[in-house]
Structure prediction request, 429 residues.
Amino acid sequence: MANPMADEMRRFKGSDEKNPFEAMSERFDRAAQLLGLDEDLYRVMRVPSREIKVYIPVRMDTGHIEVFEGFRVQHNFARGPAKGGIRYAPDVSLDEVKALSAWMTWKCAVVNVPFGGGKGGIICNPQQMSLGELERMTRRYTAELIDFIGPDKDVPAPDMNTNEQTMAWIMDTFSMHARHTVTAVVTGKPVALGGSLGRREATGRGVLITVNEAIKRFGLTPDKTSVIVQGSGNVGGIGAQLMYDTGYKVMGISDVAGGIYNPNGLNIPHVLEYWAQNRSFDDYPDVEHVSNKDLLEIECDVLAPCATENQITSENADRIKCKILAEGANGPTTPKADKILHEKGIFVIPDILCNAGGVTVSYFEWVQDRMGYFWPEAQVNERLADKMIASFNELAHFAEKHNVDSRTAAYMLAIDRVAYDTRMRGIYA
Ligand code: NAD
Prediction:
């Protein structure tokens, strides 16, 4: 009998380690094999439910029309509506969006929120577009997707280069077509328009919560724990700030151009204020200036890559010198690097758990919108902590029970949950 799992594995063998969909698929295959997932479920769950490609005409400020290419991938609906961000970038690709949509499915399952996975992207250079051009592009993209998104179908959110304003435009466009206000069509909205308190900080807070749990395994306390953070945006900047507030010694941080390092610890509020004013760390005083590559190789207790994909690969994994790798970014480590980190005994808090604080509070936002009743920030943070700590412990238990590393355990736990629900519903085939 043909073995589709083996065939797929052969197809991916020897492929470039940096293709995010292939990286996702490799981990899916390993977890599926360990779970003994039956072949029918394997075939269904390995691919997205729907890939939508749209061409978006936009009248530019000069008066001419430019056509942009956009995507929305809806990976899985077994546990609820698709959920995931929209990314604007010149190099965003369908493969990247497919990988990100699958990671959303597994992430939602790991923290047990009733969503499937989705992700969107538009190939554009947002830094070179005016606010008006961005608004027109966002509205037309929304109009193109109008039949496919909605509170019960697919709920977008911000991702790289999209923000609260983008979500407000999507919500408004969708509402104009529906002829009434539909706040729950997106999350990550401004608080005044149905957003949730605590959503902006949620991903960084989730990184803090999982790091707090992980250091206990090493007998560490925050005041005795040194941290390096790559990235200083929504995840890295807020994560660093919250860790600093908790008493961690944050020694290094970076932006896309490079990083700063001080073995005695950085004053993170000052560093972030400096960056907000100068948009660069170039002349930040009394620190060592390092490249992003060197930053990752500094000896520390916790390394938190919170910038982008493929930062730790087979080329540099051997030189990583942390005890705990806290993956704030999506896909910062390649499967080949995983093996090396595992051999070095580094404890990985996998991305689909570590950065799941964002989608967890997005779920709370969606719930609040549908109830029309909004929670105080302390309640949001408390419920987030409850969910993240429970998921961390479930994962640790699962890893122990199956004698696998934490990433494999996260995939196994997620795939097991989605498989169970799919089996219960039955495959409409
Ligand atoms: P952001 O745009 O706010 O910040 C990104 C940071 O990374 C910036 O400091 C930027 O200068 C830096 N950066 C960008 N490209 C880089 C590169 N090639 N090398 C080094 N640094 C680089 O984005 P964000 O929202 O903080 O997202 C960061 C990562 O976290 C992404 O992988 C994203 O998918 C993931 N994530 C974000 C959220 C969220 O709620 N924002 C939730 C889950 C996962």
Q: What stands out?
A: The two ends are 21 Å apart (CA to CA). Residues 1-15 have pLDDT under 50 and may be disordered. The pocket of nicotinamide-adenine-dinucleotide is lined by residues 159-160, 203, 231-236, 254-256, 292, 306-308, 328-330, 355, 358 (CB under 6 Å). The CA atoms of residues 107 and 356 lie 6 Å apart.
